[in-house]
Amino acid sequence: MNELRLEVPRLNPLPFIVADVVLVAAAVIIGWRAPAPISPAALAAIALCVATGAVALLYPFVVNHARRQEEAVQERADQIEALARTVAASAEQISIAVSNLPAIAENSARQLKAAEQLPAALKEQLAGLQRQLSATAAEENAALRHELDTLRSAQTDRLSSALEGLQRATADLARLEKLAAQHSTALDQAVAQLPRLADAFGQQASETLRGETSAAATALQSAAGEAARNLAHTAEDARQNFERSLREGLAQLAAQAAAVQTAAAQVAAAQASAAQAAAAQATASATPPRAKARSAASPKTQPEATPAPAATSAAPPRPPPPP
């Protein structure tokens, strides 16, 4: 029922506050515009506006408080209803437990009887276990005795075979001692011949070492000669390459020097022609009109330009070849 109950919305106090302000403002305006002695009608209007504004201001708070009280009462009623349901469910569970009490009592009585009979059953089981343990211990003792007997017989057989092996070993040792005494003389002779054999082996080794040393020296000499020839050939090639590059560089330098001299001669010729032209103009401006007429009547002669000297450059001497 608490889930189905609709929640009533609370009033918004803002419109009521605005109405209260408007009514109070109206009362102030009425009192301000009324004549000096306030008439009863104006006083009644002011009182009505102020009272209405107070009621409008207090109305939403009173209504909201009443609704909150109703909600609290309803919530308390819901809690009481839930508690009642919980109490009813608990009472039902208690009744079920009370109805099951006789069965629980019967089960506890049966368990008590079984507990009283338990020591006797335990004693019987312990006695059976003791009998089984004694039987198994007797069987194990008999098996152990049998195994001991078999082990003893096997050990005696092994000891007898070991004694026979020892006897055979002593006989073999005696034969070995005889053989050692027989071969000791041969060993002495071999030891006496060892120095002579060592000298012969040393001579053979020294001869072999001399031969190998001479062969190695010959191979080293041939390798040194070939390396010297290769080095001389490489040096000659390097010298020739250096001389060739040096000649090419000197030829390039000579060509550049000739080009520089030619350019200098051309510049000198240009300067000389410019100087002659300036001198001719100066003389023409300095002569009188008659001389000008004479010069106009006489045929014009142009100075011949001196040819520019040819650029000659001697090639530098050839450097001596490097050692």
Could you walk me through the main structural features you see in this protein, from its secondary elements to its overall organization?
This protein is 85% helix and 0% strand. Helix 1 packs antiparallel against helix 2. With 323 residues, it is mostly helical. The N terminus is likely disordered. The chain is flat. It has 4 helices and no strands.
Succession of helices and strands: HHHH
Content-based structural category: mainly alpha
Q: How would a textbook summarize the main sheet?
A: none
Calculate the mean pLDDT score and round it: 76
Q: How many helical elements?
A: 4
Overall, the morphology is: flat
Q: What gyration radius follows from the Cα positions, in whole Å?
A: 75 Å
- What is the rounded distance between the termini? 127 Å
Percent in helix:
over 70%
The total of beta strands comes to 0
Percentage of β-strand residues: under 5%
Taking pLDDT < 50 over at least 5 consecutive residues as the criterion, the unreliable ranges are 1-5, 289-293, 295-317
Index terms:
single chain; 323 residues; flat
Could you write a compact summary of the structure shown?
The chain is an all-alpha fold. The protein has helices spanning 13-33, 40-99, 101-286, 289-297. The longest helix has 186 residues, at 101-286.
Task: Outline the fold blueprint.
Blueprint: H1 13-33, H2 40-99, H3 101-286, H4 289-297
